[in-house]
Structure formats: structure tokens, C-alpha cells
Amino acid sequence: MTLAGWTLPQTRTGRASTVPPPPWHYSGDIIAVDFTVDPVRVEEIVPVGFSPRGDGSCTFFFCDWCSAADRDPRVKDDPIKGQYKEAYVTLNGIFDGRPFGRVPYIWVDSELSLLRGQIQGFPKKLGEIHMTRAIEIGKGGVRKAPGERFAAHVSGLGRRLANATVTLEEAVTGAMPAGALPQIHTRLWPSLANDQPAVHELSMVTVTGVEIGTVWRGKAALDIGASEFEELDLLAPRSVGPGWVYPMAFSVVGGTTMPLRGAP
Asked: Which domains does the chain show, CATH number per domain?
């Protein structure tokens, strides 16, 4: 019998497979904070060929996503499958003469997102992410309006890793977080036979259908915590720039890979 399933576990029908193949579609709300770090710290965690910006600019993103997959309607139909939160850092730099981002650390609260991200090359770990949700009626929360404060934080293995706040000042046109760039990832999968990886390559996903809703900008704060299981505290902010609150949607329809340029 031939077993089916784009990822494990494989079965006769493939229905138990964790991740369906792309296209994948994403719609969600984002809280982001621009900040700078010591550029030397960036150089220590990027692959050969990626040059960090001289100012050490980065962005911390917190995202609340709804996702869907063309070949598995359950992803969209059941919120426990396709809806999740994530938090990640983007390092801003240059690759092949073009601006690119690099995600060295990322946490998610979903099995689907964890494996789907690692397939693409995101170094996803499980974590707990909480974000302010905007309201439209009543007094039970905050609205997208000047003076309103949005907060977000992420924890991993019980350790608080980052806290962010954005106090909205104005809706802007044509402005986005510094880290809103195409991204270079590393796909890495170990081999059981020896110490050499079975897969070790650079990757880029192919993104289509990008949509951006109303973008709010404001004054931000960002604190980075320490954990014996992480190295995020090495990217402690030297300065904190503006914060951003906005909705975004896009689709991932595939991707490309390329050889590593020397040691990772």
C-alpha cells in the first residue's frame, strides 16, 4: 500500500498529515516595534552573504494569524488548526545587493505553524504569545485611535522573553516597519547517519497577494528578557524606534532554495 501525506504521519488517506502542501494563506493583526542592536551581535547570527545594516536595525513582530490551505479546508474551518499567534525578530540587512530580512528567533503556539515554518526555514519554537486585541464597541478594551496603548509579550518554557508596547499617535500612508522585507531563511535537517546535515541550504518563500490595511504608528517600548534556553538577550535594544499596529494578508505559494555560501 502506498502511504499518503505531505508531512508525517503518513496514512492510507493522508488525512492525519500535520501540514498540507502550499498554497497557504494568511490574514492577521500585527504589533511591531523597530529597534537597533549592536551590529556585531547581528553578524554573529547571520549566514555568509548576509550583511547587516550598519545601524544594527531590527524589528520585533507579534502576530495574530488566521491561516488557510487550498488542499485542506480544515485549516480554515477549525480555529484550533489554522489560527495561532507568533512572535519573532527580524534582522535587517543586504543579500546579493538587495534589502532582506533574517529571522534568527521565532516562537509560535501552534503545531501546524511550528512544522510549516520549519519546512520553510523559520527556526520556530513553541511559546506563549499574548497581544492586545482592538475592540469596536463598548469599554472593554482599546480601539485603534490616538492615545490608545497596545501591548504584546512572548514567553518560552516559562521564561518571559520580550515585552512590547505601542501607544498610537497617527494613521500613516506609505510607511511600514523597518523589518517588512523579503526574508532569507536556512533549511536545516540533521542526518541520523553522521554529523553532516541531510539538508542544509538557504531558502526564500514565494509570496503573492500582499495586502496591508490601515497602518498606525506610535511611540514604542521594548524589553528583552533572559533565559538559559535562549540567546535573545544578546539582541538587547540600544535604541527603540517607532511602533506599529496594522492588519496584513498574503499567500505563500512555494519557494526557492540555494546552496550555503560557506559555513553557516
From this structure: 25-251 (2.40.400.10)
Closest CA relative to residue 46, chosen from 60, 58, 32, 30? 58
**CB-count exposure of residue 88 (10 Å: 0-12, 13-18, 19+):** buried
Q: Could you read off the pLDDT of 250-264 as tens digits, one per residue?
A: 999 999 999 998 744
- Does the pTM of the predicted model rise above 0.90? yes
Provide the percentage of residues in the chain whose pLDDT is more than 70. 99
Strands 124-126 and 106-108: parallel
CA terminus-to-terminus distance, the chain: 40
CA distance 235 to 222: 11
Question: Each residue of 192-210: pLDDT tens digit?
Answer: 999 999 999 999 999 999 9
For the stretch 45-98, pLDDT in tens is: 999 999 998 899 999 999 999 999 999 999 999 999 999 999 999 999 999 999
Compute the Cα dihedral for 64, 68, 69, 74 and give only its sign.
positive
Average pLDDT over residues 122-132: 98
Task: Decide: helix, strand or coil at residue 77.
Answer: helix
Tell me how long the chain is. 264
Reported as type and span, the H/E element at residue 28 is strand 24-36
Dihedral pair phi/psi, residue 86, rounded to 5°: -150, 160
